[in-house]
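quick one: protoporphyrin IX containing FE bound model?
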Amino acid sequence: MSAAKPSLILRRMTNAAGGGESLLSPGVSKIGPSLAGIVGSKSGAAPGYNFSPALKGANITWDEQTLDKFLENPSADVHGTKMVISVPNAEHRQDIIAYLKTLKP
Ligand code: HEM
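yep, here:
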């Protein structure tokens, strides 16, 4: 899988429930926050989204490792997060993270 070709799982997840997050538009939130520019940013800091106190207080810098851990099981990683879907398949997580790295803030 290459970052240029987001996997089916990514498309399914991001299309789920009207699009969990806006992947491409900074500052545009849906059920979840915009993920444009997420890699390298601080957790719970994207403008225009009402994050849970849990995620705001988590003080995570999103990189390959922290994203991998969060996506594997968000509620186990950040107790009380509003994101409840998880990506149990490690390969899928790698695909997703590679894609997230291509998104610009
Ligand atoms: C590939 C798919 C997804 C990825 C990579 C992803 C990733 C993330 C990340 C990294 C955050 C933290 C954002 C930040 O700190 O600025 C987040 C938050 C969130 N996500 Fe997702 N997500 C995905 C799919 C979804 C879906 C499908 C939903 C809902 C149906 C969802 C709901 C949320 C919510 C509600 C939050 C805010 C959590 C809080 O405030 O505690 N996500 N997501």
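The first helix runs from residue 8 to 15.
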